[in-house]
Amino acid sequence: MNKAKVLVARSIFPETIARLEEHFEVESNQGDQGWSKAQLIDKLKGKQGAFTTGSERIDAEVLAACPELKICANMAVGYNNFDVDAMTARGVLATNAPDVLTETTADFGFALLMATARRITESEHFLRAGKWEKWSYDMFAGSDIHGSTLGIIGMGRIGQGIARRGALGFGMKVIYHNRSRLDPQLEAECKASYVSKQDLLKTADHIVLVVPYTPASHHTIGAAELALMKPTATLVNIARGGIVDDAALAAALRDKRIAAAGLDVFEGEPKVHPDLLQVPNVVLTPHIASATVPTRRAMADLAADNLIGFLVHDKPVTPLNPAVLASK
Ligand code: GLV
Questions:
Q1: Cα–Cα distances in angstroms (integers) from residue 81 to residues 150, 153, 217, 244, in the given order
Q2: For residues 114 and 145, is the Cβ–Cβ distance under 8 A?
Q3: How many structural domains are present in the chain?
Q4: Atom of ligand 1 nearest to the CA of 97
Q5: Residues 155-166: what's their mean pLDDT?
Q6: Can you tell me the mean pLDDT for 249-270?
Q7: What is the model's pLDDT at position 198?
Q8: Where does the pLDDT of residue 2 fall: very low under 50, low under 70, confident under 90, or very high at 90 and above?
Q9: Are 236 and 90 found together in one domain?
């Protein structure tokens, strides 16, 4: 039987490629070249499967040009790079990589929160620049994590992991806002109380954003929301670029309307809004919340499992549009 053809759109573990090659004819981008949309289409033509990351946009134009495509397996839990409706309409299966990164990403959310509130990178830059000549009582004085109020916007699995860390590890009061309220047992486990977005913005000492990006969540935090926050508050975004209006945030940080921010994701990344680069009270990291070696391996394995599961055994592991399976 002819092997199905699969495109691996970005550089990935050689072991992942070797595993895919046991089942498929694989073309991979191990040189990690940045492809334009036209180049992506060109490479995808004639392929039945694609191993993608959050950076490859799979939309109606790509799908129309690649009618042989049957599955795109994203090595990410977020999948705003997929037009899932267009994929379903074309009978193309979409899969993502949930669960395997939950705890690693929650760890990182907490690390970024602590670095932000305790001004860790700002003080390190000061030290490295040779500016530390004497100690002073208010040098890099930040805000406390323990005992403070943590507000989480987006209470999926990662949000719940952050809530547990805050409540159980640091004695924080945890409030959250989400499209739907968690069931009472889960709320009790996370020690989290549901509040309106407005109340969360007004009362939280630290706000962590973990909502998926959709047109409805675009600029969940903009100038109006920043104006409601406490001047001592910190804001952390580990969700997606576009959830925060980065220009409005840079202005709020510059004018000290909020104390500090920690950002792992950016509108238009890998570009970063130039105003953010000018303000000292922001910790910036290059979209690495799930980046531990074991977790990145688990994510790659899951994307490969989905390709093999679907194209070889008709059984994907984490389908996003199972209607495609039903209609086969
Ligand atoms: C990372 O941002 C992911 O969605 O997995």
A1: 30, 21, 15, 18
A2: yes
A3: 2
A4: 5
A5: 98
A6: 97
A7: 98
A8: confident
A9: no
What residue ranges in 60-201 does DSSP mark as E strands?
A: 71-74, 93-95, 149-153, 173-177, 192-194
Q: What is the CATH number of the domain that holds 16?
A: 3.40.50.720
Report the alpha-carbon distance of residue 218 to residue 244 in Å, rounded.
Answer: 7
pLDDT tens string 176-219: 999 999 999 999 999 999 999 999 999 999 999 999 999 999 99
CB proximity list for 146: less than 8 A, separation 6 or greater: 170, 171, 172
Q: 277 is in which domain, residue-wise? A: 102-284
Ligand 1 center–CA 97 separation, angstroms: 8
Question: The tokens of 160 are what?
Answer: 């719940």
Residue with tokens 């495609």: 324
Residue reference for tokens 């009472």: 184
Query: Do 308 and 238 belong together in one domain?
Result: no
Residues 21 and 123 in one domain: no
User: Helices 157-164 and 102-117 sit at what angle, rounded to 10 degrees?
Assistant: 50
Q: Which of 267, 269, 273, 296 is catalytic?
A: 269
State if pTM tops 0.90: yes
- The identity of residue 208, as a single letter, is V
Query: Do 277 and 185 lie in a common domain?
Result: yes
Taking residue 267's Cβ as centre, other Cβ atoms within 10 Å add up to: 19
Residues in the chain: 328
Residue 10 binned pLDDT confidence (cut-offs 50, 70, 90): very high
Rounded to whole angstroms, the Cα distance separating 112 from 270 reads 18
Digit-coded pLDDT (tens) for 265-282: 999 999 999 999 999 999
Cα distances (Å, whole numbers) of residue 238 to 87, 103, 133, 220, 265: 27, 13, 35, 13, 6
- Residues 91, 153, single domain; the answer is no
Whether 102 lines ligand 1, by a CB cut-off of 6 Å, is: no
CA of 151 to the centre of ligand 1 (A): 21
Q: What's the pLDDT score for residue 328?
A: 75
> Do residues 204 and 177 touch, judged by C-beta distance below 8 A?
no
What is the distance between the alpha carbons of residues 245 and 264, in angstroms, rounded to a whole number? 14
Q: Name the residue type at position 220.
A: T
